[in-house]
Batch of 2 targets.
Target 1
Amino acid sequence: MTRRTVLVFVLCAAMAVGAGGAVNAQSPAGSRGRSLVIVQGQDPQNWDPIATFLLSWGMVGCQIFDGLVDRGTDLKLRPGLATSWSTSDDGLTWVFKLRAGVTFHDGEPFNAAAVKFTFDRLLGPEGAKGPQQGNYKSIDHVQVVDPYTVRMVMKVKDPVIITKLAGYGAMIVPPKYLQDHGSAYFGANPVGTGPFKFVEYRKDDHLTLAANRAYWGGAPRVSAVTYRFVPEAATRVAELQAGRADIAQGVPVSQASVVKGDANLTLLPIGSPTVLEIRFDPSKPPAGDVRFRKAVIAAIDVQKIIDTILQGYGHRVSTFQSPLSFGNDPSLKPYLFDPAHAKSLLAEAGVKSGTDVSLSFPSNNADFREAAQAMVSYLGAVGLKLTLTPVEQVTYFSDVLPHAKTGPIYEFGWGGWTLDFDNTAYLLYHKGEYWNPVFSDADVEKYLGAERTTNDQRTRLKAFQSLDRRLYDLAIDFPLWQSVNLWGINKRVEGFAAPPDDRVRLLQVSTR
Amino acid sequence: MIRFVAARAGGAAAVLAAISLFVAFGIRLTGDPAVVLFQGSAPSAEDIARIRHALGTDRPFLAQYAGFVAGALRGDLGTSFRSGLPVTGMILERTGPTLALGVGGMLVALAAAFPLGAYAATHRNALADFLIRVGSLLGLSFPNFWLAIMLILIVAVRLRWLPPSGYSGPGSLVLPCVTLGVILASTLVRLVRASLLDTLGQPYMRTARAKGLRESRVVVRHGLRNALLPVVTFVGLQFGALLGGVVVLENVFAWPGLGQLALQAVTYRDYPVVQGVVVVLALGVLLVNLLVDLSYGLLNPRVRVGP
Amino acid sequence: MTAAQAVSAPLPAARRTRRPIGLRLTLIVGLGLVAAAGLSAIASPLLAPHAPDAADLGARLLPPAWLRPSAYPLGTDAIGRDLLSRIIYGARVSLEVGVVSVAASGIAGTCLGLLAGYYGGWWGELVMRAADLQLSFPFILFAIVVIAVLGPGLSRIVLVLAVTQWASYARLVRSETLAVRETDYIQAARAIGLADRRIIWAHVLPNALGAVSVLATLSVANNILLEAALTFLGLGVDPSIPSWGGMLADSRNYIQTAWWDSTFPGLAIMLTVMGFNLVGDWLRDRLTPETA
């Protein structure tokens, strides 16, 4: 009997092997010619500019759409669909001169009516269904002056409105296309004026764009771009190694050496505006005691964590802002690592050895997850028992943080992308703000008030620096590092500049 | 029989109602989709109220649930909060990839399990049997994501035989299906072996042998055919579990199936999609369960079906 | 989830045949492996050369000592902790996740299945519909909902596993019970007026135990792996407390640069899984009556 059974087995095995061998799916990077494949972690699921806050939208959206204003990889503002703009003395009216001769991908002309349509939609009932509207509440309405001039009338003065016009919600959309097809169709089949036009989209799989040869800023140098959505970082790196992807977003530090070690690949680190810190919730003992907070801070060697776990991909910060931020006080140095001091502070504060302290953090941040485990060891050395509470990230940001459901210490990350401390400081330290359900301090309120009531930059800077000093002394948070984003690039790609704000620019990118 | 099926259909309807109520209520305990939309920014109370109103989540729970049920009975599972598209269409779009993965994985498992299980059964307690049984445990010992990543690294990165991930053409099916197949095969090999051992001892097998048939013929013609029945039952039962259980594999292989749809929907608290996927999956599982229960009755006349 | 449901189909009973060396070897090897895992769980502080959470950032990802001599026999992980010590301590969490959840779901499911199968009627119907409900709810979604509502933690994971698996046992035991209920000897036992409790306890239950023990041993393995899957999806527990599944999930980015980091926890899972299953094989052979 065995002969027959063996035969069956061999046949099956041969079938299995044959199935593998028959499919020759090898697709080395070179065979793609001038088309580009980018792997990114997330699919925003809806390409309508008014519907999203996700960075994954921005990575793609700025290929399809243009705003009146454009922000480049150097974070400087420059003309977009508007060639110039001016404001009235009271700052309540803006006039934009529009670029002539631009058409949407479907052939519709771009003009003042399209701009008016875009803002009517953003500020009207359609925009009310999405999260972006709130960002543009300072705008009252937009008027058509002539076919290539619009006037924007403000409700209140908004010093950062021009920056916001480079943002997601203010991307100019095609009026006729939207009226014909409706928002739901538009969200899955987007049309804009950008350097690439929509070809095909399969959710959670891929989005294909083709070069817009008629782009007002010049034709792109690649012929097509395919975005593939690959949630698992290990798989993204594998796609890069296998030569099937040219650019990979979100390479984890733990895979940096894999990319660096591959002869075909380059690792591009770029400092992001995101700063990471540990915050204390003073309402949860023992975090109400400043000596406890300072003891935790002194017990952890952040520089060592950056040098080892982050492999240097992180910049130490001393306050909760990047060194470039307006309001940073360069005279403040990072807190010192001093475990002996930490022990004596804990003894002073009467915190018993072996006290349990819980640290909450979002579970998707692989780098912080490792850093937190090192902190367990550091705090253990001064007699604190740190337990880690990883929380699913959306629950963390939408429920745990704003409702103060964390442990006495918790992780907090913040992207201060306006590079002015005002936004961060107000939302994080002003009592009762969304991100600050617990902490309050009279001096902090005083400095925040002083900063907001003046337009004089020198007075503002002084107020910020007093605020920095006060927060530093209160040790209400423990600033860790400014994050560095890692991109993996196939060496055949030329002219790619990793963007600090994740808004990839592909106009100048070419392939070898 | 008809009464039995009718009773079961009634039972299934009750189960579906309970599941839809449970999922609709449960998912609403996990967080507010209006807040989730504002990731990383600081929404004001009015912003959140505005979105809640637009999504309809400001209505009382029972009103929302009644709306869902009324729509579902007409085949309309609502509109996704994230994409703004009809949920029914989104689910249909994802069914193909998930079925391809499930069916492919099952075929790989069957192709491996039958020869190995048969060989082990016919060589009971020999070294080969021991090795096959122990070997089959290997598939039960690795988490699916680990096996998936290893296969990607070896077959796609080192050998470059197949694409590492994605859903594009027949080549992309191989790695996900093999991963799933290896995991399923571990159980299946043991099942085929046990089932065949049972059959081989039956009187009709002795008769067949007494007729002077060759042993291989006995095993293949009579043994395997009869051993097939419990295996088919298993395959049927397993399919329900499969559809809901490929979440991790779809995540690793960037597979645009129901598992990823469900995972994303839960992550973003896209209530209509979560409800839709759970109800559709449950419907599938209940249907298969009914078929399996019916086949019990056919397989073993001693079993009385129904109440 | 797959393996748990895998065996809820009726398993044909293996016949009692000759019991050669192979079978005893199965038991010895199986018991040996389970005992080793149990011992590491109980006596971890005595066995482990280092504290499981003592990190030395200067000694990250060191290879095993036989490749490059160091104080760490199996090398270190990404935080610079001793891999061997973490594997020894990891037995605690992994066995707790595996064994406690299986015990809870197995006992509950078996009791419900016995009652549903033996008495049938509306009660049996209710139990089976509840089982349908449980089996048709996708496991991962259930886990996400429970963990989002109750918060993360080891006890939550054990709870999720126990709650989602009772139904497999109930279905399995019910089908076994149905088959046995109509046999001549049960009919006879009823006819002579034996109490139901006694019939169930002495005649029905032993019949079902063979299949239950196989399902249970497979589920121990499966639950250890499910814990890994939950960690993979970001629903896991405190990563500084070692668990084999968690270690495997957290080491996936180092597969290419530090093979030991995932290989040794994987080996620990494999040997333990094998141990439980070999014991299960042996149990099934012992417990399954000749007629079934």
Note: Chain C touches chain B through 70 residues (CB under 8 Å).
Target 2
Amino acid sequence: MNRAERPPVSYFTIWVWLVILIAVGLLFVALPISKLAAVAVIFTAATIKAGLVVRHYMHLRAQPVMLYAIAGVPVMLAVFMVLALVPDIAWRP
Amino acid sequence: MMSAIAAAGQPQQMEGGIAQLPIGRVGIWWFLASEIMVFGGLLGSYILSRIAAGGWELERAHVNTGLAAVNTLILVTSSFTIVKAHSAVEAEQHTRARHFLLFTVLLGLMFLCNKGYEYSVELAHGFTPATGLFWSYYYAMTGLHGLHVLIGVAVNFVLWTLAGGRGWATVQQRVEYAGLYWHFVDVVWIFLFPLLYLA
């Protein structure tokens, strides 16, 4: 791990943010808001959490673009599979 | 001959576009890419099946959200401890690194114990993989993830043992690779938790 791979903030600070985001997810489940809004917040929080772990704990922020591609292509394929099939599932007769 | 032996102890370097990276790091990212496809396919089919079934609200009400939240905290904390172990290895603070590896192993075991308890309660209430599609997905996804946690615990335990015996030369780079795998297991849970327990 070279200097560039170290996160701009401490690992502990990132852990604190991860805990805060877990709490945010749990809080929005309990709040009397619409299900859609709660789901949107919960999955946004989950995506940010995953981003923090991947970028800072896995040090992807300091890696070459090729490593982003190795990790990113399967993610995009999985997301594309779901998005492409949702219309068939949601609007089937 | 001597230089060949000395080189064998060092991580090999990739040639080409990502030439500056140790070949082992690139290898573990390729492995993680294949794992993303496995879990991506499973999570994607769960989402689609759930939309098709109309939400599975009744089934989801029977899972233990509190215990799963504790498990999320445990895994996130174990990600912190393994990255601190990696950091300590880089700083050649061997005792500190061993302590963080041991913390990671213990947190992984705590996760598995909690999951085992959760399974036992659900099975006692009659929720088996054959109960319905939600429970089939639930046991398949959490079971596959649990298997990954178990493998991670075993790998980290072996590294902790080797580090105490034959010294650091054999494990230095492997702590980073084990850490990358462990973080991936954490990221998978970060998405499993809302999908199965919150949404």
Note: The radius of gyration of chain B is 20 Å.
